[in-house]
Amino acid sequence: MVALATREPVAETVFGADLDVRDIEHGFVLHEEYLPVLSEVSFKAMAGEFLALLGPSGCGKSTLLRLVAGLDRPRQGSLLVAGAEVTGPDPSRVVVFQDPTLYPWRTVWRNASLGLETRALLKQQRHRVDDALALVGLEKFAKAFPHQLSGGMAQRASLARALVNDPSLLILDEPLGKLDSLTRLTMQGELTRLWQRRGFTVLMVTHDVEEALLLANRVIVFSDRPARIRADLAVDLPFPRRRDHPELLRLRREALELLGLARDW
User: Fold this and answer.
1) Which of 12, 41, 136, 192 has its CA 20 to 30 A from that of 199?
2) Do 24 and 74 meet the contact criterion of CB atoms below 8 Å apart?
3) DSSP strand E in 31-165: where?
């Protein structure tokens, strides 16, 4: 059964944008044959909500993120952010990938400043870089180079680069997927606090069911390719969340059943 979320966002101040995904159909032509990837995908996110996307590997979740970011255009359907149709990339919609993708020849500060630099705003708004690095706890590493950072610190630098743009929609594509387990647990908590403090809307892809339930207001579960929405699960639990909370364990079981993995756990 699909559970629809009605809970208000929990951010201290909401600066995020509404997201409206309408009847998306998308695919690719491979070897002169059409490969459908997304089918009849529709959902809405309120400003300041945190949505996690779960589904089998390769089902089309990351493709959907690219469409929301404006990096690709859907074959059918439309996407609206704050009521305006997405027709291309915009600084208000920022993507953080699994790999930090930092420029090795630039310091942490210079990596974080890229968004302002490309828009010729750096001279007037240098303080935003300092503020973003402080927000992710890297103010003492502003002059460090990427090779001097741990995996978790590099991902924080990537988040700072995104936050400098003051996004209304933060798009996360497996942002913690390559971190070791202890660092990942720490970053989950830090990501929650960043979201609560800044109030942006979050759309995150993850393959970790528990992570989705710990972080998100709602978890959207997709089928295998071509991806269709199988369920929209409301996670009506306060923060910080406990992994052993009975409701979280129940939702975990439900999500695993939807993914066809219940017997393996």
Assistant:
1) 41
2) yes
3) 33-45, 50-54, 76-81, 84-85, 93-96
Cα–Cα distance, 212 to 101 (Å, whole number): 23
3-state class of 18 per DSSP? coil
Domain annotation covers residue 59: no
Which pLDDT band holds residue 252 (cuts at 50, 70, 90)? Answer: very high
How many domains is the chain built from? Answer: 1
- Give the pTM: 0.88
End-to-end, the C-alpha distance of the chain in Å comes to 21
User: What is the token pair recorded at 202?
Assistant: 């979050």
**From CA 195, how far away is CA 192, in angstroms rounded?**
5
Residue 126 counted as domain residue: no
What is the domain range of residue 32?
A: 1-52+71-89+203-265
Q: For residue 74, say if its preceding peptide bond is cis, omega within 30 degrees of 0.
A: no
pLDDT at residue 263, as a whole number: 65
